[in-house]
Amino acid sequence: MEPALRTYDASSWALAARPIASGVSVELDIPDRDIAAAITLTRDEARAFARAILAAAGDATERTFPHPQIPEA
């Protein structure tokens, strides 16, 4: 198996992306919950998946932090 190109290993989960012949394998491991998943994507699908994850993270950030009131001039 190819080494992961990108990995993130937090204390409670790990995420890795590995190149494969047909594209990319994205692997998620959450050992505390006994969950492991791997999805195989083409390069185009992997790019779309990454964009969707970034959009969801941005949306979650917007919803999480309050917006300060801007005084009228």
Explain what you see.
There is one protein chain. The protein has 73 residues and is α+β, with helices and mostly antiparallel strands. It has one domain. Helices cover 30% and strands 36% of the residues. It has one helix spanning 43-64; strands at residues 6-9, 14-20, 23-30, 35-41. A 4-stranded antiparallel sheet has the order 1-2-3-4. The longest helix is centred in the C-terminal third of the chain and has 22 residues, at 43-64. The N and C termini lie far apart (61 Å). 3% of the residues are buried. The model has no long low-confidence stretch (mean pLDDT 84).
Topology (SSEs and partners):
Elements: E1 6-9, E2 14-20, E3 23-30, E4 35-41, H1 43-64
Antiparallel strand pairs: 1-2, 2-3, 3-4
Distance between the termini: 61 Å
Secondary structure: number of strands: 4
Number of discrete helical segments: 1
- Inertia-based shape: elongated
Order of helices and strands: EEEEH
Low-confidence runs of at least 5 consecutive residues = none
Q: Write down the overall mean pLDDT.
A: 84
| Number of separate domains | 1
Strand order of the largest sheet: 1-2-3-4
Percent helix = 25-40%
Beta-strand portion reads 35-45%
**Taking Cα atoms only, what radius of gyration do you get, to the nearest Å?**
17 Å
Described by strand count, sense and barrel closure, the largest sheet is:
4 strands, antiparallel
Protein structure class:
alpha+beta
